[in-house]
Amino acid sequence: MRKGEIWVGLLMLAAAVLLVGCGGAVAAQTASDDVLPVVAQDDKTVVAEAVIEPARWSALRFETAGEVAEVLVAPGQEVAAGAPLLRLEADELALSLRSAEQDVVAQRAALEGLVKGASETLIARAARENAQGVAQAEIALQVKGLQLEKARAEDPAANVASAQARVEQLQLQLAQMQAKPVDAEVAIAQAAVEAAQAQLEELLAGPDAQAVEIARLGWELARNSLWQAQLERDAVAGRSGVPAYQKELAGATVGAAEVSAAMAQLEYALAGKGATDEAIRVAQAAVRQAQAGRDRALGAKKAHAIGLDIVRAQIGEAEVLLAQAIAAQEAYAITLEVLAAEVEAARLELEALRTWDNPYLDEASDEELAQAEARLRQAELAVARLELQMEDTELRAPFAGTVADVAVEVGDRVSPEEVAAVVATLDQLQARTVDLTELDVARVAVGQPAAVSVDALPGRAFGGLVSEVALQAKDYRGDVVYDVTVELTDAESLEALRWGMTAMVTIEAD
After folding, report:
1. How confident is the model at residue 121 (pLDDT cuts 50, 70, 90)?
2. Are 452 and 462 in contact (CB under 8 A)?
3. I need a surface site. Which of 96, 229, 337, 383 has the fewest CB within 10 A?
4. Contact partners, residue 345, CB within 8 Å, separation at least 6
5. Which phi and psi angles does 394 have, rounded to 5°?
6. Beta-bridge partner residues of 70
């Protein structure tokens, strides 16, 4: 509270005292208006700022982390001491507890059996169980042996060799395709077009010695092209692994070269005779034929590029299969080792069962009894620990009161640091000072009457008694202050006041 407000309060208290001194009628009127008689402002009065709070409240947290499974209360609900408020998911923990309880039963029975000694029935049962174990172990050894033999017969080395051969075959095919002179074929076809066009132009321009020589050279060039095309066709036909479309393309190239050679020969023969209409038509046909050959060569080049991409993709797939086959072979070696180890373990287990001595024929030693007792204690401790963990999954009211807040919902994840609920005695309110200094606390004692007013209810005051004076000081804005608790005695204070309201406390000090 600000200093000015304190002085105003003191002045109001002084005026009230004067009114009281003037007559009892005024005092009676004040009491009937639910305003506490104001204490005279003198050396026996202590004024301090305070806050309204429950006499007891607690912010509750789970002791363990988990998922909220049940919310059993709502804000404003009254609860008894120990009433469950929230529960965490504990199905798995409950199963562990039941298992631990069964283990306690088993360990206790084992200890009792050692103390009492084995009966003939128990001895016979143990021998029978061992015989069954021997039979099962023999079958298990046979199964493991068969698994090992089957695995040895499934050696993936052949798969690795096949995949490697496939990769090499495709790589060879790619090399052969890359060696094909498709660019040269296109150049030859383009030269044939240019030669045919030149021949046609010469025919149209009229024959001369130079034209005759050009026709002769064109014929030579056409024969060389035919010869080269034939060689290429024969080479492709003699190679294995060459796609059919390449062989057909080579045959078509030879056919085109033959036509070009025949036309070039005819042109040479007609060059000296001059250009007739028939010769011009033939020359034009030759140009068209050469252009068609060039188009075929370009198409063959494009198809060749596509074929290269296809083979490269096939090589990639084959390399992946090869890597998988190699990995399978490596895993196969490990599998053989594991199976061999399992066969040996099965053999050793069978040998141990065959050489087994019935322990129930012997009396229990002190060491065996001590070990059995220790196992029982360990099982009981496990049950106790799980029971404590089960208790930690449930949040209960530490005292009777009202649920002031529930901070979680079903499905939320909570940790021990989070406040899950708040319980308070909202039917027992008090005022706790926040700025009562060390100069005033020496004049305050338990049982002194006090008046409490709140900013939210101007003109009203509520009676109370000092119920507690703090033994230890704390810091408040640089001052040394002590908490003083005033228990409210007015019944109406429960309806009028709320937790957290700012208040002013006036205490009748000694």
Report:
1. confident
2. yes
3. 337
4. none
5. -120, 130
6. 87
